[in-house]
Amino acid sequence: MGHIYITFKDFRICSSCGSHSVIKFVLIMKSSSHTRDVQEKVVCLIMGSNLTRHTFGFIQSRLFPYYFHLGSACAFFNLTIFAMYHPSELLTEEETFQIIVLFICVTVAGLNAQWFGKITSEIMADMHLIEQSCGLGKDIGLSTNREAYIKLKESNPKYKKFSHQLTLYHNTSSLCNLCCIICNGISLYYMAANLSTL
After folding, report:
1. What's the rounded Cα separation, in Å, for the pair 33 and 26?
2. What values do phi and psi take at 13, rounded to 5?
3. Domain ranges of the chain
């Protein structure tokens, strides 16, 4: 029996290979990836204002590697599944755009998992050691006792260097996360817009 293809702009799915299961799986992957990005921001805000600085940093350094690798795995699976069901010779402009968006998401998530996030955690751990030696880090919330941290920066060149590096890598990592949120949002939008054509 020949394969019947359903043109679903986001999927050209073969009817004989469990199309509904594949669609459900992809929708779960895409929505999970997008939800994970948003939840991470909310959780960080809550933890950052309710835990001591070093407890928050310790939790981040332990959880973020898993979070970043999970994000890059979700992005990779999204791209792989999309590419499997979209032969390059049959791609429309819209589908080409979606492949590019998914590729950007995979690249950015991979960089964040392997480099920016990892270095951010390492710098934070080094800074915590210096802060502990000065009796700092037990204050609740990231914005409390700022004067003491400013003084430490002024008096300790190594801590000042770490602080500048942390700002750079943390901001870059946050930018990567934002890029993934936008890419996943665009991908979800195209999927949702084309669900009615199934």
Report:
1. 10
2. -105, 135
3. 5-197
Tally the C-alpha atoms within 13 A of residue 130's C-alpha that lie toward its C-beta. Answer: 19
CA-CA distance, 35 to 88, in Å (whole number)?
Answer: 29
**pTM of this structure:** 0.72
CB-CB contact of 152 with 130 (8 Å): yes
Tokens coding 87: 């032969």
Please give the Cα distance from 65 to 77 (Å, whole number): 18
The CA distance from 117 to 54, in Å, is 17
Is 65 buried (19+), middle (13-18) or exposed (0-12) by CB count in 10 A? middle
Per-residue pLDDT tens over the stretch 64-105: 888 888 888 888 888 888 888 778 888 888 889 989 999 999
Give dist(CA 40, CA 3) in Å, integer: 42
Residue whose token pair is 């934070």: 124
